[in-house]
Amino acid sequence: xxxxxxxxxDEIERFxxxxxxxxxxSLGDLDDFFWSYTTWFAHRTKGEIRAIALLYAGMAxxxxxxLNTDVEPMADLVSSIRELxxxxxxxxxxxxxxxxxxxxxxxxxxxLHCKMVLSADAAARLRxxxxxxxxxxxxxxxxxxxxxxxxxAYPGNWFDPRMLETGQYVGIREEGRLVSVAGIxxxxxxxxxxxxxxxxxxxxxxGRGYGSCATAELCRVLVNEGLDVxxxxxxxxxxxxxxxxxxxxxxxxHYEEYEAERSPLSHASPPQP
Length: 273
Known about the structure:
It is a single chain. The chain starts with a strand and ends in an 11-residue tail after the last strand. The protein is α+β, with helices and mostly antiparallel strands. It has nine helices and twelve strands. Strand 8 and strand 9 (about 175-190) form a beta hairpin. Helix 6 packs across helix 8. It has helices spanning about 10-15, 20-30, 30-35, 70-80, 100, 120-125, 145-155, 210-225, 240-245, and strands at about 5, 40-45, 50-55, 65, 90-95, 105-120, 135-140, 170-175, 175-190, 195-200, 230-235, 250-260.
């Protein structure tokens, strides 16, 4: 099995639009804000795309997104590109795909995760809601405060300071200090999607509904821009899932997360454009 590299954003979008809940991150990564960090691999059968894998290199550790409702063509695709993948990367894989990487990479599992999407009913309710009192929008001028907040509330998280440029971060302050933040990993008005992320509350302020309030307010802002809203969450994180369900999210799919590092005996050539 061989693969092709994709460069046509319209072609990629058409494929992912068949399941927005599963591919909301990949759709967002088509945006100019992310595009230069992306490499797109495709499996074709008789000219028809059957699977697309995305390698995103916009963070210190690249991320491979290999998600497909039909596992067989994705398994063939990952098998074809595994020798071209970085020495170290993070992977979001459809269930049963991890074994395809084992010949070339050592895998450290981070468990089963849920992809959740905001329901149409919840989006309609939020569009009609008033702005939540006590919440503030955060931007680039708040970077120092946001970094200090995450150091205490969510160390080691996947926060990209560029995301503050979007203006799609919502915070709650007490006496001038950030105590809760909800933000985005992906935001694209062009492709009408947003993926929430970096949602956290200071340990001393948890249990007061701050996270739910900030997240709901951010969702209200995003749905009023006409965006589909989704997020990823660990399947064992029952408290977070309950919070998201209360806001109006539903589970769209499950996938597995791994850290992958090239096995010492595996030798690979760099990917060709």
